[in-house]
Amino acid sequence: MSDDGTFSRRMVVGAFVLGLSACSSRPTLPPPSKPLTRTEDAPFRAHPPAVEANAAASLPASAARRLANGVSVEVVERRALPIAAIVVAMRNAGRESANDPAGLSALTGRTVLSGVRLGNGQVVAKPSVHGRALTVLHNDDATLFGIEVVAGAVPIAIELVASVVSRPALDAPAFEFALNEQLDAAAEQSRSRFFHLQTASLQSLYGVDHVLARAPLGTQQSLRTISASKVSAFYRAGYRPSSTGLFVVGDVDAERVFELAERHLGSWAADGSEPVADTVPRVRVSQSPRSLMAFSAGGMATVLLTVPGPGHQDADRVPFGLVGTALSGSALSRGNRELSHHDVKSYGVWSLSHVRARASELFLGFTVEPEDLGESLARMLDLMASVGERPFAAPELERVRAHHLGNLSDMYAKNSTFALHLAELFGQGGSPGEFARLYERVRSVTAAELKRAAVAWFRRDRVQVAVVANPYENGQTLRRFGNVEWFKLEVQTVD
Amino acid sequence: MKVRRAEVQIGVRATLAAVLLVLLCSGRANAEPDPLRSYVVRSSPAEHFRLTNGLEVVLQRDTAQPLVAVVVAYRAGRAYDPRGHEGLAHLVEHLTFRGSRHVASAGMYEHLESAGSVRWNGATGADLAVYYSVVPKSRYALPLWLESERMAFTLERFSEASLELEQARVRKELLQRGLSQRSFSLALNQALYPAGHPYRQSEDELGDVLAADLSDAAWFFQSHYRPDNARLVIVGDFPETMATVVRRYFAPIMNPPGTPSRPRAVERTFSSRETLTVTEPLLLDGGLTLVFPAANGSDPDAAALDLIVLLLSGIGPWSLENALVRQNAIAESVTTELRRADLASHVYIEMQLRPGVSPERAESVVDDLMARWASFADAGALREARTSFIVDSLLDIEDPLDRAFRHLDCLRSFGEPFQFGKHVQRYRSVTLERARTAARRFLNPRARLAARHVDGGRSCAGVCISHDSEGPE
User: Fold this and answer.
1) Under an 8 A CB cutoff, do A131 and B392 touch?
2) Taking the complete model, does pTM exceed 0.90, yes or no?
3) DSSP code string of B362-389
């Protein structure tokens, strides 16, 4: 290097030239050829094609039977493919009482499935048919066991699900296996950012100890307090013929299914006396100003707004759901317009509807850059509070109606989702044919009903707010909306 | 009529009854009782033809469905990004939603949602840019109108304003992916694909996307979004005249000059045991991914490998869950997946290790299991896997959109739509010897990549990457 720094300057110039040449090494693409459009236009292209008038969706019919011991059976015959889905639902088996440790219901379902006594007395864990395992699902209203099989295996599958619910081993190996599995599942669940936001919101809505605010899988702490005898007691109380629904959708004959149900479930008698019908505390939504919980994390902010809504049997259940769709969950929702999603001002507003027998919740979520958090939150809260003030014009009503009918049709497209839907409706207190009534209710709902539901349920003081954000970047912004309670996430979350 | 005569009929269109009897019993059925001896599949066979402009069409009518699924796939995936223009395929996929001559910007959303479609989108994969929608059967023609607009009249609506908006949207999508996972998946991608490979990702995809100009996007669209580079698949309850409707919308669409290009790549071989280590500061949830090469869809060992992967991902004695989660407390969870693409296919084994378990221990358990596969002689397990795979296949074609994608996969591998009878025969013919051959070819424990995502603790200053190999076998 020379003393006068000439070499240094050369180096800088050299680096600059190298940099330029590096930039210019990005190959230049050829221009598009002209004309850009070669296809000739035609008058029919100017407008969308007409709706096919004679192609309205028709729902498949279901056949139902109630066995003498109270088991309910519902069958939908669909013959296109030689397959069927079988789901057995245990109504009430999803409902824990306030004294039960969180996760007891789900653990009972797993234990039941982890030791099934077959007709020959053999006990098997996680039984399967042709490699398809029987699975267990759990929600606040019911525990569901389901399997998909080829049509020829329907008799085996019905015998199997009957064995699962009526003849579980409930022995130590089954309990240990189920407990370990559920501990892992609970750990996995705690990695979800949405899980933390949802749990905090439900606890704020219903109270920390309320059963509706619990994580259905329980926590590491609550699961470790559950004994095998507690699981057995919960089984005896909740798994009873009178609270059992069997649902079969697919390439089956309804009469044959009724015969099989009678053969495998008809002689099942419950132990002991009927449990108390209502073990779930009444839902009391906080009337205090909304609470605001924030979880510390870096990067972008995620917001969850929760609106408590009516239970499944409430007349407002369908209008409430349609108001939710008007606000979020579709590309053209009011929420997406409010946050200028189409102009890329936001990542969009999504929604999740959580319907249960006694209560429901609408969750609206969005993710924003930290600097947009305050304005976006204020806009969304105003939008929700005023949703009843803006009329639901015919195009908007038809759009949200079409969205809901589309969702239902989508569920009916597959045997498994159809059977699960039937089972969920049963868990929520529905009776046979409930899916068709729900479909008709959506078809007939009016703008006036939406407005009434919007005014009744979307009050500003009912909306709960939970946020994952960085306290240093967003603390001041969030305090504008009320008292903020911060929590530290102990795990690395994903969503 | 002229157009119809000139069309090329691909394969044989079954004109017999819409009832297809698939007999699965072979000569061995007596010795090996098979609960799936026969199936009756009542869906119509798929109709497969090509329009004069080159557009390949598959139609499958299923009147049991309340829905119609429409999929258009262009050979315009990430592998087609020109060098130095990473992300261009993805950006153009976005731009095609910004309106056409007869559809306003965001009009696609509006039309589809108003029609009651709850599943519609576009996606850019390694090989394909795919657009799909599922609509009620009364609106079966709507996606045809929209997709013909996209193919023929979108380019003239590309604008600086749209480009800017979609660059911002792609930027958000890229940033939304977790930083940590992004660095790991990028390192894994670069370890799998050498420089110049069409599947190799660059560190600065975002920079390339933001540097793209309108002319680049227009050139890419013109090069790849053309009838002779696309496939249209429709499944569901549509009228018998659907082929006529397809011709009305798509037959007049003209191709731009030239012919579509195809990316090429030299096969990436695994000749040794390779280890990629990605170390990050304060990484709470480390993981381990093992990658083995895999047969592409048309390979004679493809069916055998599919069955092996099914057994690996099950819960029996040949499964990874059995070896890693149930018998040994090594991993909290493990998933096995066969990912097929035009230029490279791999088996991915991804696991979440339990706290305190070293990656070496997990790798050793996986390697031991894979070594056992070379002498696989469990006829019962193979029989169960065959049956299970066929049942899975039936369940996979229940949903019209899933079935449309199944047709696309078969077109890529075999040049013809999915046919259940052929599919069954393919898997029925897998023998123990064929399974052992496939295992030796593809699941060699001394020729694979282990990618470790590990915590560097507080002292770790940033992401550190090392890629070592033990040397050839």
Assistant:
1) yes
2) no
3) HHHHHHHHHHHHTT---HHHHHHHHHHH
